[in-house]
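G., before I forget:
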Amino acid sequence: MKTFSNPSVAIVGATGAVGTTMLSILEERVFPISDLRLIASSRSVGNVIETTWGSIVVEDLDTVDPAGVDIALFSAGGARSLEYAPHFASAGASVIDNSSAFRMDDTVPLVVAQVNDEAIRSHEGIIANPNCTTMVIMMAAGPLHAAAGLRTMFATSYQSVSGSGHTGIAQLASEIDHFDSQRSNLVTGGWDEPDGDLYTRPIAYNVLPLAGSIAVVGYTDEEWKLVNESRKILDRDDIAVEPTCVRVPVMDGHGISASMWFDRRVDLDEAVAVLGSAPGMQLWDDTKVPTPLDSAGIDDILVGRLRETIGFPGGISLFAIGDNLRKGAALNAVQLAELLLA
Amino acid sequence: MKTFSNPSVAIVGATGAVGTTMLSILEERVFPISDLRLIASSRSVGNVIETTWGSIVVEDLDTVDPAGVDIALFSAGGARSLEYAPHFASAGASVIDNSSAFRMDDTVPLVVAQVNDEAIRSHEGIIANPNCTTMVIMMAAGPLHAAAGLRTMFATSYQSVSGSGHTGIAQLASEIDHFDSQRSNLVTGGWDEPDGDLYTRPIAYNVLPLAGSIAVVGYTDEEWKLVNESRKILDRDDIAVEPTCVRVPVMDGHGISASMWFDRRVDLDEAVAVLGSAPGMQLWDDTKVPTPLDSAGIDDILVGRLRETIGFPGGISLFAIGDNLRKGAALNAVQLAELLLA
């Protein structure tokens, strides 16, 4: 694996919600960068962004020359990754791609930093950053899997609107304003539909029990990511996953309610021992239940409601929450970039 | 079972969120009432409430004489039910109690109208109205159980603040206002804690993965209700239930994501046939995903995301949503009262 001591770094999709978080995290962590390039679609081209590496003019993805880029952090959507990531990789860059484009490609490692770091070593130019919901629950499932072998996982999500980028945040805010004058109608019925078609239904004061788009046999693409990415990250093809992905009116922070069973019984003491010492995670007890608001802006995944299963004894239930823009996306990408440092 | 043709009806807890909904529903359904009495705790005593049965002065629960009441609808909290419901029952009233006080009492039937109506016939003066979350999922689980025998249910809830009454609705509204000027901090962190101690953590723009209070082995009272009430309603003691109860920033309407397995395989066609013809329910396909906002103010339970399980084939996953103030509480109580009509 090619490593770098003072790389040239490019952020592709630099003005999006994840891209701007990538830049913040590179700054916070004082990532060693010889030259930073910010690249976006034509809408943002020419904008000047102030960084600790100086004022940087946003370049146009459609015309950019990737020569000289050592590490490229992509978060510009699946279609742009499919088109441009191989172009950057063949020009010599190690691409860390936040889209779903390459995640299930056998030649592309899918890596949760602090869970399956070693997988990165086999990369051939492109490394995939997992789905934000999968990432959060893998931070808890990974250490338990390492200890006892994960066989079964029920995962039900509470996904924030920042998972849909700046437009998701703006949509929730505008709908909250829209409903300000008709809050009592939210109880009795008779509310007016807000504007906007980002989601199929209103998201303010609501729950959308369908996140993503229906893909196969009634499950959404988001739900299939929980199935397939979990198996690839944990390197076990026969993990049984029952996924449900739901959008909730939260600005930032994805929560996952999960029940897990393993190759052998795992009791509460063992789960506390494993998760209490797992990296990148805070285990909170029931006197201090973690919430998405607590996760916003921090790096650690928060895990709470840890308990032994009661319907089928021998397993563990828990609630995991993480900042989907940070560990769910930008932070993990930067952590993967750090694994590429010499 | 004693029945009535034109009963004297009392609402105990008449000024609460459920009590006022009970009154609305009695009016909507033109319930035959010879004499309506509205009873509450001392705070509301003396208030005059306009009804289709005339202007009624609210009476004081502490001093009221229950003589002459035929049907008493109680929704004044568990402690008041424990104290006053037996008093009303021994004075001759048939009590329909919305609290948890008597639900697991062997001499008290626990009835979801249109699911286990026949259970009401054995009552000895008190009939229990199930928990609002359990009620909603039982409307979907009941018909499937009747067809195939429910063995296993994973249930993860998305519970609205109206489940905490008027104060829950007011708390969410005030927190939404509190966060108006600091919405960007909800993404980056650094928000100020809102006032109020109804919940342990803020509820606006947040998810509280602990609804109710921790009871036994790390599960909340709300979660144990899903276990124990489901078994009693479906009259099967060995149903394995894995429950997780979560509060979400929704004004009204409880959602439950559930996966269920039965004594035999149930496929999608059968589930569609069973639920498509079940009473009190609308089955929506994936082109029109039901949400809590759609359920507010209506009587039917909405069921969507119906699909065959993929982790352990042979079962059914679905998302059920219902107005917790109506079918989850007041409507079911009135439907039970209708079963007492001659």
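Chain A has a mean pLDDT of 97. Chain A touches chain B through 69 residues (CB under 8 Å).

More on Monday.
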